[in-house]
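Hi everyone,

Forwarding the result from last night's run.
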Amino acid sequence: MTQHPRLLPRTPLLTLTLTLLLLSLLLLSACAPSPSPAPPAPPPDDIIKAAQQQLTDGCLKRQGLTPPRPGGGQGQDPALQQRTAAALFGTGRTELTIKLPTGYSVGAHTDGCLAAAQRTLYGDQRRWFQVSTIANNLKPEAAYRHRTLASVRAKHRTELADLRSLRTHALHQATAQLAAHQQKEKPAQ
């Protein structure tokens, strides 16, 4: 039987080679420009507000009116301010009303640019008005009834579920609205 020479294990050399290769790759990846992370998406409420602003501004501009901005009404003709407010918020008797458990009544118009934007975003303006008004008045109701906020929320769980559903619908509509507007604003290439 012939004896073969025993080869020495090459693990130290192999380990050193792999280590150097790994270090080289790490150095190269550290030097390579990393893609900048996408900016975080704005909160859903901000997306919906931006689309609502865009819709109301467009509606007012189609009527030859300048959309109001905070602090921008000083020195403006009072008649023009009134005309702009009427176009934005609607006129006449409020078509939507709800009496809150605290005794207060809240109303809104179904005409005007804001109402049109709400119909576009939420789909059902009447239901949006009802559930958002209730949801925005849960704390006053709890104080008025001397109950916990949790118990008042439990009492209005149907309205709160409808609110979430309508807001989800509005977020989808708002995202589509903003994307369509952005495409329209892009210069032709």
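The radius of gyration is 31 Å.

Cheers,
N.
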